[in-house]
Amino acid sequence: MRNRSADKLEPCCGSRNPGTTRSRFVWRAVSFLVAACLVVLGARYLINDAIPFLTDISSGKFGRFWPRRVWLLTHIAGSGLALLVGPFQFWSGLRRRSMLVHRWSGRLYVVGVLIGGSAAFYLASHAGQGATFGISLGTLGVVWWTTTGMAYVAIRLGHVSQHKEWVLRSYVVTFTFVTTRTLAELGILPSLGRDPFATLVWLSWSMPLLATEVIPAGTEGDGSQMVLSSAQLEPTRDLPARRGSSPMR
Question: For helices 160-174 and 131-156, what crossing angle results, to 10°?
Fold first, then answer.
């Protein structure tokens, strides 16, 4: 005897809801534009603000950071590495074509965060701009390491969906360096109270991080399967990690 629920699902399978398809197209277009803007801002930051410290190692360039230039260079190198390889973690086509490249870019990203964060903690304790600014930098370092660590633990446990969410949060924090510079150039510092630099650091990671929790995440896939199959209607959960299956192993 044929299952009635299957009869109801069958005519829908393979069909597309025009409204849903249109919404997905709009979401992808907006996501592409946002990603393009972020790439431009990130490249601009690296070219104008980070790389010059690597090419002009002089007291005139480093200013008050000259006595701590090694730590600053270490921080720039680590955070720059994370900023560069981070986007590869979001490239679904790369995951499908070469999981090995995806895994190694993930490892490099973690290394960059560890190196950049270590130097950041030292610089935060020797900021020279008051305790408030030092605390803001130290907190940023803690959040940076925490979000990255959660992403790593999640994939080691085989929790792929949670891993993706934490990688996004981690990269939002990584992008704080770009966000801080961009907002400062927009001239908002005079409106940020008694400790504008500390407030700017807080805003540059907390508000984007909040946005990732509020804005719905885009879905992967080509949109061809718009109706759940009977198997997909069953409760699902991430499978335990198998040896060699973790993208960042």
Answer: 160
Q: Which residue has the tokens 């290394």?
A: 111
Q: Which two tokens stand for residue 28?
A: 């992808």
Q: Per-residue confidence at 236, pLDDT binned at 50, 70, 90? A: very low
Other Cβ atoms within 10 Å of 75 Cβ, number: 25
Give CA–CA dist 196/141, Å, rounded.
19
Residue 81 to residue 23: CA distance in whole angstroms: 35
Extract the tokens encoding 101.
Answer: 């490249």
Instruction: Band the pLDDT of 30: cuts 50, 70, 90.
Output: confident
- Report the distance separating Cα 88 and Cα 238, nearest Å: 23
77, 36 in Cβ contact below 8 A? no
**Model confidence pLDDT, tens digit, residues 119-168:** 989 888 886 677 888 888 889 999 999 999 999 999 999 999 899 899 99
> Is residue 119 classed as helix, strand or coil in its secondary structure?
helix
Q: Which ranges in 10-98 belong to alpha helices (H)?
A: 18-45, 51-55, 59-62, 69-85, 92-97
CA distances from 236 to 93, 113, 161 (A): 24, 32, 12
Pair of tokens at residue 224 = 């061809």
